[in-house]
Specification:
The chain has two helices and 27 strands. The chain is mainly beta and 362 residues long. About 12% of the residues have low confidence.
């Protein structure tokens, strides 16, 4: 082997360690001793976002490199944060101490609902729905309430109060074709309301549902199960997809055909092709994950994933998302543009460099 061939081989090896071929890039940011329970991104300012860690609402202005508590809400307890598109992007954060609303700058937080809120969703008509329980513990077996707002969250009215034995909803969706049709999922399966949430009936009660999402292009409802992956509702029948044996935390559409899902069993991001019913696991994280949010970027999607002592920023190139999701969007990646990858690069350089010096001295 000549000197030139040796150098070319070494370069190819280094490139294969640092830059995988699937077009994804992953940056891992550590937060020692802190679990990131939920994340949200400002779609207009990618470096601006929010997170929840063990009930505390945090804000970042440097792309999640650092997180700082919002001082005016430091004594409040939250379980979710999400951005909602409209004439202006609005941020909502809900939890035991009620539902709070702010402008996209995050500079003016207002309490808009003084009751516990654990989940919120926006309908195609722009109206908002929020669900909470009377104790603020969001337990599967407590009485829950449904609230409705027609002025983008400034005022709310109660629509529904469940029976004491009825479970709290962990997934909520508004039908993409009929804004009066709502869907709820939880420990006892899938429920449907055809009168704006005033009354509900069981559709399926076989498996626990953690999340729901509509494909507004096809009108199909997708169900994220707590144990058995993703299913879809077709002509009132539930059919399981190719993504099985996974605990689905959240879902969002990358485009009209591809559905991204965050799985808790293998701590992975998967992409389901809903047309061909095929599934690809994009990445398996080495730490526990909790939630994700995504936004479009030139040529692809950038995602932020929250989890155990870390936030991951991921670039999925070649995926152009559309606004087909119901709740907040999500995602993650496979490439290792992180500390571990660079340690491998340094190690490879050291080893191959030593071998190279011995070879070149001959």
């Amino acid at each position: 082997m000549g000197k030139r061939a040796f150098l070319i081989c070494m370069l190819i090896l280094l490139m294969s360690v640092a830059t995988p071929s699937d077009g994804t890039e992953l940056t891992e940011i550590f937060f020692s001793g802190r679990v990131i329970n939920d994340v949200a991104i400002d779609p207009a300012l990618p470096e601006h976002g929010w997170a929840i860690s063990e009930g505390v609402l945090l804000e970042t202005t440097d792309g999640f490199s650092s997180l700082h508590p919002i001082e005016s809400l430091r004594d409040k307890s939250f379980v979710f944060v999400q951005t909602v598109p409209g004439a202006q992007v609005t941020v909502f954060a809900g939890g035991k101490d009620g539902l709070w609303k702010s402008n996209a700058k995050g500079s003016d937080w207002r309490l808009v609902l003084m009751l516990p809120v654990g989940v919120m969703v926006r309908g195609k008509d722009g109206n908002l729905w929020a669900a909470g329980d009377d104790k603020g513990i969001f337990d599967p077996y407590v009485r829950w309430y449904l609230y409705y707002s027609t002025d983008f969250g400034m005022h709310w009215r109660q629509i529904y109060k469940s029976a004491p034995e009825h479970e709290f909803t962990s997934g909520l969706a508004v039908d993409s074709k009929d804004p009066r049709c709502l869907w709820s999922g939880g420990h006892y399966g899938l429920f449907k309301s055809e009168n704006g949430g005033a009354s509900w009936k069981w559709v399926d009660n076989n498996e626990r549902i953690r999340s729901l999402i509509f494909n507004s292009n096809t009108g199909e409802l997708f169900l994220g199960y707590g144990n058995t992956g993703i299913a879809r509702l077709i002509d009132s029948k539930i059919e399981h997809t190719a993504l099985t044996n996974e605990w689905i935390a959240e879902m969002a559409f990358l485009d009209k055909d591809r559905l991204a899902a965050l799985g808790l069993r293998e701590n992975s991001l998967c992409v389901l092709d809903t047309v061909n019913n095929t599934c690809q696991r994009v990445v398996a994280f080495k730490r526990a994950v909790t939630s994700f949010a995504l936004r479009p970027i030139p040529g692809g999607v950038e995602a932020v994933v929250g989890g155990d002592e870390a936030v991951w920023r991921v670039k999925l190139m070649g995926n152009k998302p559309t606004a087909t999701g119901q709740n907040k969007p999500l995602s993650a990646g496979k490439t290792y543009k992180n500390i571990g990858a660079w340690l491998l690069v340094v190690l490879a350089v050291a080893v191959l460099g030593g071998l190279g010096r011995k070879f070149l001295r001959r």
